[in-house]
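Per reviewer request, we include the raw input and output of the structure prediction for the construct analysed in the revised manuscript.
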Amino acid sequence: MKKLILTTAFLLSILNVQAQEFFSDKRPVQSANQFTKKVNDISYDIDLIIKTNKDKLKQDLNEIDQKVENNQLTKAEADKLRNEKAEFYAKQIEDETKIQEDKIKVLINNKIEDNINFSTDMSTYQKNLIEKKIKASVYLSIGSSFMMADNKLKNRYYENSIVPTFGAGLSVKTRLGSEISSFFWKSDIGMLSHSINIRDNKTIESINSETVLTEIPFKVDRTNLYFSDFRLSNYLEYDFSKKKDDEFGNMIIKSRRSFYVGMGGFIGISPTMSKNMRYHEDGEKYRSTNTSEYNINKFIYGIGCYFGYKSWNITVNYNLSNTFKKSFADQSVLNVSLVYNSF
């Protein structure tokens, strides 16, 4: 019995040490709970084994004492039988607790292996929490462009109706300074289209290297100008995302988890312009499209800003360069777009 008590104490001490090592704040909660449950189950089984066999031994000893009182056994026979019963149940306890001991070894070995795997996985996991200093993405935009004349959005030359315009390109974002800095430098290279409606049954023409508005000699339903520019944009971005820790206390360093703003400018080229007229004649619908330079400024530049949340932002761009080299008014494009970025 002394050997049994020492063995049981040894096993329980192992469980206690392992529990202290594995039940730290850095361990996954579910894994710790599972390990605790298994430890409690094995501890309960050991207690049950000891109690069951002790009860059986006590019952057998009572029966032996009863036989001695009934003169069915001599004292010497009873003593011998008592020793045999004690050795038998001690062996039973030893064998049955050996099975539980093997379960403990398997449990601890599995836990140690899990701990090693967890450490490896944690190292990879921690690296994934830190965003790369330079990130690339694609972006898509949809919005509207407005032609301003003599710095006036509302003017007598163009209709400021909301006509869909589109854009697409590539973005590269670089975190400035330390790995927890909130400042970024963002560069975009892409294309942005524009669609402008001309008022009052008029169209544009290039006459003597000057862009002018002329009256169309017949009734038209709509006259549109279509042109695209290819631009390189650069912005200084500030990210309002708050620093966060995961459940293990590791710092999460990722941008665009909340609101952000950016300001900057762009340069680019605008190669050609298309003029589209829609009209009716003899009950039939017609569309006429002409593509030319129309005395446009091929080199463009301007300023821009954006305000966003996570993958979406509203971007406003204003061309500081005149749309036409020489025309009836100073004209420039204002574009407002909803942009999706895959950062």
